[in-house]
C-alpha cells in the first residue's frame, strides 16, 4: 500500500502509459496486501504456520499431522483453516484484531480462495452465491459448548449488517437482527462448567434478502431448550442469565414491584441456601419445594449489571413496548418465587405451610405426596419458562417479519447454531437428543459433501471414483425407526398402562434392539465392558465414539407433562403473555400431546428438509482447552473434537481424488511467469495455456487432470514445488521491475518539478534571475501563505507551496530510492502529491505504476475507466461474455446516428439529449413476439422508443432491479413494482451489447447493486399478477423462442469457462 500511495504523483503524460505497460505485469505476481494474498501465497511459510487448507496436507490420513497443523496455526494466532470449503475455527479465548470494518471490506466480493481463511470469507461466499445463483444458502455452525459457535454466528450477522446495501427501513431490520442476539442469549444461555455463555438451545435463523441483496427480514426457529436448568444446575453452573441480570441490574422501583431483593442468595432456584418464602403476586400461582442448585451467582467474566442494560435496550430496538417488558419480567420474577414455596405434610400428603394468600392453592396438590408436590412445582416452573421462551422467539419473529407485500419472493441465508456432540460423566435424556441431532447432521454433511464432490467431477468431465466412508444411517435408524427405534420404545413405555419405569424401558430396549451392533447394556456387555458400565446405563456406538446414557429420568423428561389443574390456573392468569402461552383450547383437547422426543424428532426432520433445500456452507468450531485460557493447546481435548466433528472423515472424502483444483484463469494468472510461452500474456484458449504451463513445469500425467474449466492436481507436493518455483521467480521479476521503475522516476523528476534550483556560475553568482524572478522576500511570503492554505484545493495562494513540496518529495525520492518494489520502505507522499483522480479510481489501481499512469488521464478516458471498473464489479467471473467486452470501448450510442426524431423525443419529453442509446429487441409479455426498439437513457429515466415514438418510460426511482443470465446471451429483464399502474409489468429486452448496456443503466440509475446474475431461470411479472419465466440453457448457438411449456427459452453458446 505504501508503494501505491507514494507513486500516486503527477508524472507527465508522455511516459505514463509506457510506465504502465512496463511495470504492471510483474507487480501482479507480488501480493501487496497480506490479507488479500491468495491461499497459495502462504505455502512458502508452511513449515512455520502450516497449510491454510487441510487438503494440502501430505499425510492427510494422519490425525497427528492434522492436529499438528492446527497447533502451528493456533500458535501464530491463525485460528481459521479450510478443509476444502469447510471452515475449521479454533476459539482463541482472546480478542484478535481481525474483525474490523477494514477486514470486512477486504473479504467483500473476493473469490473464496483469494484470501486467507476467515469467517467473513464463508459469509461473503454464501452471500455472493445467493445473489449470482439465486439459490438459498445456509451456514451450519457446529461444535461443543465453548468452541465459539455463538460468536461465529454473531460475526456473520455483523458482516451482513456492515457490507450489505442499506436504507432506513433496511437499517431497522439490521438493528433488530443484531439485537435479537443479546435477548436470546439472556433467556437461552447460561454458565456451564465448560462455557460461561453456553447456548442451552438450538437456533436456526433465516436472514431474508430482497432483490437488491439487502437484509429485509428474518425468522428464528428454536430447538430443545434445556428447561431442566430452570429448577436444577450442577454445582459450579448457573441458571439462565436473565435471572441474575434482573436481580443485579434491575432498578429499585422495578424490583420492588416484582417483590424481588437484590441478592441471588435469596432464591432457591439460583443457590443452595434455603431462602424465606416469597409470594408469586404476578402470576397468582405458587407451589412447593427445594433442591440443591449451582451456587454460582457471580462469574468474573460476566457483568450482569452491564448486560441488563444491553438487554433492555435490545428489547426496545426489537419492538417491545413497556407493557410487554413489564409482563415478561413479571413471569421471570414469578419463576423465582415459585422456587421459594415451602411445603410440609402429614400422612404423606403435601400441603403449603406458609400463611400467605397462596394457601388456597393447597387443594390443588391433594392427594400429592411430598415428592409429587416437588415435581409438580418444578414442572410448572419449567413449563412457564419454556413456553415464555417460545413466545419470546415468536415475538422477535413478528418484529423481523418481511412486510413488503409488493415483493412476494426473497432470497434466504440460513444460520444454524446448534449444540455439538456431548459426552459427559453422566449423560441423560438431553445428551441423547443432542447426539441424535448430531448424527442426523453428520449424515447430511457427508451426503452433501460427497454429492458436491461428485457433481463437480461430473461437471468437469473427470471420472468419479466411489469413496468408502462410514454411513451412520445405521445409527440414525437405531434411534428413530418406527416401532423398533429407541424413541418409539421410549414413547411406548411412557404411554402403556401399568408400572412403567426407567428400568422397564431399559429392559424393553434389551429385548428389542439388544442384538444391534451399535447398542450395548450392562447385561449384554462382555465382562471387560461391564466394569465401566452401570446397570442403569445403555451405550450407543456413535460415529464420534461411544457414549453411556443413564436411563434415570428418561420417562419423566420425555413425558414433560403438567397437571391439568395447574394448566387451568395458568389460563386464569391476568398476565397477557401467559394467557397466550397457555391456551384454553388445551383443556378441551382430549388428544395426548406428543412426547418431548417425538416433538424433537419431528422438528429435526423439518430442519433436515430446510437444510436439504439450500446450498450449505460449514463452520466447525473447536475449543483448544477446558480452562478457557488463551494460547493453551490441549492435544487430548482437540483430538476428541476432531473425531466427533468428523473432520478426518471429511478430509478423507475431499482428498479421495484430487487435493487441489482451480479455474484455468486463476491458475494461469498466478503461475504464468514460470513458463516463457505463457509469460507475460497468453493469447490462446485458457485450457491450452494451462496445459503448456504444466508441461513446461514437468507435471507427470498421474499428477493432474484437465477438466472443462479447471485443473485438478492430485498431490500437494506438486503444488508446493510450483509455489516454491514461483517464490524464486518473484524476486527476479521484482528486481527487473525495480530497475525500470528507478530509471523512469529519475527521468521524470526534472520534467515534473515546477520549482527548479537556482543555476549558479563558478563565481557563485546567480544566473537564473530574470525580470520575472521572484525576490527572496516574495518567495518567503508565498511559502508562508501557501503553508497556511496547504489543506485547501489548489489555488493561487498555495500553488507555490504545493509545487515546492512536490519537488522536494521527488528529489528526496530520487536520492533515496528503495532497492526494489518489494521493499517495504517506500515513503508516503504528502497530500499535495496525491493524484487528482485517486479517489475516483482507487478500486481499480492494480499497482503503484498504474496509479502513476492514471493520474493525468483525460476526462473521457477517466469516464471510460470508471465504467469498465463498474462492469468488472458486476460481471467479472459471473457473466460468460464479459471477457469479450473488456477490450472494447464503451460508447455513448450504438445507433448509426441519433436521428432527429429520437433527439426531438428526448428534448420534448425530458428537455435533454439522451446520455446513451442502443438498439434492442423487446419480447412481448404474451407470446414473446420479438419487436425492434431503441433503449435511451436520460438523466432520470429509461426510455423505450419505436421510430421516434415513446413506447414506455421507467423512472430510475421505480426501477426495482435488473436480471440477466450468466450465459453469453444478451437477454435481460427490467423489474418494476407490480402495483405501479403506469407499468404493465416487467420488461424483457435483448441487447447485442449487454455488458455495456447494463453498465450504463447501472451507473445512470445508481443500480450497481441491483443487477442479479442468474443461473437456470429468471422469473418476472407479466402484468395483472401473472408470472413469466425465462429458461436459460447452454448450447451451440444463440436461440430465443417460446417453449412448449409456455416459458421463454434462451439457448446461448458457452464462450468462456467461468
Automatic annotation (TrEMBL):
Gene3D superfamilies, per this entry?
1.10.10.820, 1.20.5.4820, 1.20.58.530, Kinesin motor domain, Myosin VI head, motor domain, U50 subdomain
The protein's matches in CDD domains, at most eight in alphabetical order, are given as: MYSc_Myo1
Q: Which InterPro entries match?
A: Kinesin_motor_dom_sf, Myosin_head_motor_dom-like, Myosin_TH1, MYSc_Myo1, P-loop_NTPase
Alphabetically, the GO molecular function entries are: actin filament binding; ATP binding; microfilament motor activity
Record domain Myosin motor: where: 50-727
Q: Where does the record place it? A: Cell membrane; Cell projection; Cytoplasm, Cell cortex
Q: What is this protein called?
A: Myosin Ic, paralog b
Q: Which GO terms describe its biological process?
A: actin filament organization; actin filament-based movement; endocytosis
Q: Which organism is it from?
A: Salarias fasciatus (Jewelled blenny)
Query: Do you know which SUPFAM superfamilies this protein is assigned to?
Result: P-loop containing nucleoside triphosphate hydrolases (SSF52540)
UniProt similarity note: Belongs to the TRAFAC class myosin-kinesin ATPase superfamily. Myosin family.
Region: Actin-binding, residue numbers? 604-626
- PANTHER family (alphabetical): MYOSIN, UNCONVENTIONAL MYOSIN-IC
Amino acid at each position: 500500500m505504501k508503494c501505491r500511495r507514494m507513486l500516486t504523483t503527477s508524472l507527465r503524460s508522455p511516459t505514463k502509459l509506457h510506465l504502465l505497460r512496463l511495470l504492471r505485469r510483474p507487480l501482479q505476481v507480488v501480493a501487496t496486501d497480506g490479507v488479500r494474498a491468495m491461499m497459495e501465497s502462504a505455502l512458502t511459510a508452511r513449515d512455520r504456520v502450516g497449510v491454510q487448507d487441510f487438503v494440502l496436507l501430505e499425510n492427510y490420513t494422519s490425525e497427528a499431522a492434522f492436529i499438528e497443523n492446527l497447533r502451528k496455526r493456533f500458535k501464530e494466532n491463525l485460528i481459521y483453516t479450510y478443509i476444502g470449503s469447510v471452515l475449521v475455527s479454533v476459539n482463541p479465548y482472546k480478542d484478535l484484531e481481525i474483525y474490523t470494518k477494514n477486514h470486512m471490506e477486504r473479504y467483500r466480493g473476493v473469490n473464496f480462495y483469494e484470501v486467507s481463511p476467515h469467517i467473513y470469507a464463508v459469509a461473503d461466499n454464501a452471500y455472493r452465491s445467493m445473489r449470482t445463483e439465486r439459490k438459498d444458502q445456509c451456514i451450519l455452525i457446529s461444535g461443543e459448548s465453548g468452541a465459539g459457535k455463538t460468536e461465529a454466528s454473531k460475526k456473520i450477522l455483523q458482516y451482513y449488517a456492515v457490507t450489505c446495501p442499506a436504507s432506513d427501513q433496511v437499517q431497522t431490520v439490521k438493528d433488530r437482527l443484531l439485537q435479537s442476539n443479546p435477548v436470546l442469549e439472556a433467556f437461552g444461555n447460561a454458565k456451564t462448567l465448560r462455557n460461561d455463555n453456553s447456548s442451552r438451545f438450538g437456533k436456526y435463523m433465516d436472514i431474508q434478502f430482497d432483490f437488491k441483496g439487502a437484509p429485509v427480514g428474518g425468522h428464528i426457529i428454536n430447538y430443545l431448550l434445556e428447561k431442566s436448568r430452570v429448577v436444577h444446575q450442577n454445582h459450579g453452573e448457573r441458571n439462565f442469565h436473565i435471572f441474575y441480570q434482573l436481580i443485579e441490574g434491575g432498578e429499585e422501583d422495578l424490583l420492588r414491584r416484582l417483590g424481588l431483593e437484590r441478592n441471588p442468595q435469596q432464591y432457591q432456584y439460583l443457590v443452595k441456601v434455603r431462602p424465606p418464602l416469597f409470594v408469586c403476586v404476578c402470576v397468582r400461582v405458587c407451589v412447593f419445594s427445594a433442591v440443591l442448585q449451582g451456587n454460582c451467582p457471580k462469574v468474573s467474566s460476566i457483568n450482569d449489571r452491564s448486560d441488563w442494560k444491553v438487554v433492555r435496550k435490545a428489547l426496545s430496538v426489537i419492538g417491545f413496548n413497556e407493557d410487554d417488558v413489564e409482563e415478561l419480567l413479571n413471569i421471570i420474577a414469578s419463576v423465582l418465587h415459585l422456587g421459594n414455596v415451602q411445603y410440609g405434610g402429614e400422612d404423606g400428603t403435601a400441603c403449603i405451610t406458609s400463611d400467605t394468600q397462596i394457601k388456597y392453592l393447597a387443594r390443588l396438590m391433594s392427594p400429592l405426596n411430598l415428592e409429587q408436590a416437588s415435581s409438580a412445582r418444578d414442572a410448572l416452573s419449567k413449563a412457564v419458562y419454556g413456553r415464555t421462551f417460545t413466545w419470546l422467539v415468536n415475538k422477535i419473529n413478528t418484529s423481523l417479519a418481511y412486510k413488503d407485500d409488493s415483493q412476494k419472493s426473497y432470497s434466504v441465508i440460513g444460520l444454524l447454531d446448534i449444540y455439538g456432540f456431548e459426552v459427559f460423566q453422566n449423560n441423560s435424556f438431553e445428551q441423547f437428543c443432542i447426539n441424535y441431532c448430531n448424527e442426523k447432521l453428520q449424515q447430511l454433511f457427508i451426503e452433501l459433501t460427497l454429492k458436491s464432490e461428485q457433481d463437480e467431477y461430473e461437471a468437469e468431465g473427470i471420472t468419479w471414483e466411489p469413496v468408502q466412508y462410514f454411513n451412520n444411517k445405521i445409527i440414525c435408524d437405531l434411534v428413530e425407526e418406527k416401532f423398533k427405534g429407541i424413541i418409539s420404545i421410549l414413547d411406548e413405555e411412557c404411554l402403556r398402562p401399568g408400572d412403567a419405569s426407567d428400568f422397564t424401558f431399559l429392559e424393553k430396549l434389551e429385548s428389542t434392539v439388544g442384538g444391534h451392533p451399535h447398542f450395548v447394556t450392562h447385561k449384554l456387555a462382555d465382562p471387560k465392558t461391564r466394569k465401566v458400565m452401570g446397570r442403569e446405563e445403555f451405550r450407543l456406538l456413535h460415529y464420534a465414539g461411544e457414549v453411556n446414557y443413564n436411563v434415570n429420568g428418561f420417562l419423566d423428561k420425555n413425558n414433560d407433562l403438567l397437571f391439568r389443574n395447574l394448566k387451568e390456573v395458568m389460563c386464569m392468569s391476568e398476565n397477557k403473555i401467559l394467557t397466550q402461552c397457555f391456551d384454553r383450547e388445551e383443556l378441551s383437547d382430549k388428544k395426548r400431546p406428543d412426547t418431548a422426543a417425538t416433538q424433537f424428532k419431528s422438528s429435526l426432520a423439518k430442519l433436515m428438509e430446510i437444510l436439504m433445500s439450500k446450498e450449505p456452507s460449514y463452520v466447525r468450531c473447536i475449543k483448544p482447552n477446558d480452562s478457557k485460557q488463551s494460547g493453551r493447546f490441549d492435544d487430548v481435548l482437540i483430538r476428541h473434537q476432531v473425531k466427533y466433528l468428523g473432520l478426518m472423515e471429511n478430509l478423507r472424502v475431499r482428498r479421495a481424488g484430487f487435493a487441489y483444483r482451480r479455474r484455468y484463469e486463476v491458475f494461469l494468472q498466478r503461475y504464468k511467469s514460470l513458463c516463457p510461452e505463457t509469460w507475460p500474456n497468453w493469447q490462446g484458449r485458457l485450457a491450452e495455456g494451462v496445459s503448456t504451463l504444466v508441461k513446461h513445469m514437468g507435471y507427470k500425467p498421474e499428477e493432474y487432470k484437465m477438466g472443462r474449466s479447471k485443473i485438478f492436481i492430485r498431490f500437494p507436493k506438486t503444488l508446493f514445488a510450483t509455489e516454491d518455483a514461483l517464490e524464486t521467480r518473484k524476486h527476479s521479476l521484482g528486481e527487473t521491475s525495480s530497475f525500470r521503475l528507478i530509471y523512469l522516476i529519475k527521468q521524470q523528476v526534472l520534467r515534473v518539478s515546477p520549482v527548479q534550483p537556482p543555476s549558479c556560475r563558478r563565481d557563485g553568482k546567480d544566473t537564473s534571475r530574470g525580470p520575472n524572478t521572484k525576490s527572496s522576500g516574495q518567495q518567503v511570503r508565498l511559502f508562508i501563505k501557501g503553508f497556511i492554505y496547504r489543506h485547501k484545493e489548489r489555488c493561487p495562494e498555495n500553488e507555490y507551496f504545493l509545487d515546492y513540496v512536490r519537488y522536494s518529495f521527488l528529489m528526496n525520492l530520487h536520492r533515496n530510492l528503495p532497492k526494489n518494489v518489494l521493499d517495504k520502505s517506500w515513503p508516503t507522499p504528502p497530500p499535495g502529491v496525491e493524484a487528482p483522480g485517486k479517489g475516483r479510481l482507487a478500486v481499480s489501481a492494480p499497482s503503484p505504476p498504474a496509479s502513476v499512469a492514471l493520474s493525468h488521464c483525460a476526462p473521457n478516458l477517466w469516464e471510460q475507466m470508471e465504467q469498465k471498473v463498474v462492469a468488472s464489479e458486476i460481471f467479472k467471473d459471473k457473466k460468460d461474455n464479459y471477457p469479450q467486452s473488456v477490450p472494447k470501448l464503451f460508447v455513448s450510442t450504438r445507433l448509426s446516428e441519433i436521428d432527429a426524431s429520437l433527439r426531438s423525443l428526448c428534448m420534448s419529453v425530458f428537455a435533454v439529449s439522451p446520455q446513451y442509446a442502443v438498439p434492442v429487441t423487446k419480447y412481448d409479455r404474451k407470446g414473446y413476439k420479438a419487436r425492434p426498439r431503441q433503449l435511451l437513457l436520460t438523466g432520470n429515466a429509461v426510455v423505450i422508443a419505436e421510430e421516434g415514438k415513446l413506447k414506455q418510460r421507467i423512472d430510475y426511482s421505480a426501477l426495482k432491479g435488473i436480471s440477466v443470465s450468466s450465459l453469453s446471451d444478451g437477454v435481460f429483464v427490467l423489474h418494476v413494482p407490480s402495483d405501479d399502474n403506469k407499468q404493465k409489468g416487467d420488461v424483457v429486452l435483448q441487447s447485442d451489447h449487454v455488458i455495456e448496456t447494463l453498465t450504463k443503466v447501472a451507473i445512470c440509475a445508481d443500480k450497481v447493486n441491483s443487477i442479479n446474475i442468474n443461473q437456470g431461470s429468471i422469473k418476472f411479472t407479466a402484468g395483472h399478477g401473472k408470472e413469466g419465466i425465462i429458461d436459460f440453457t447452454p448450447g451451440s448457438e444463440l436461440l430465443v423462442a417460446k417453449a412448449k411449456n409456455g416459458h421463454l427459452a434462451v439457448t446461448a453458446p458457452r464462450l468462456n469457462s467461468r
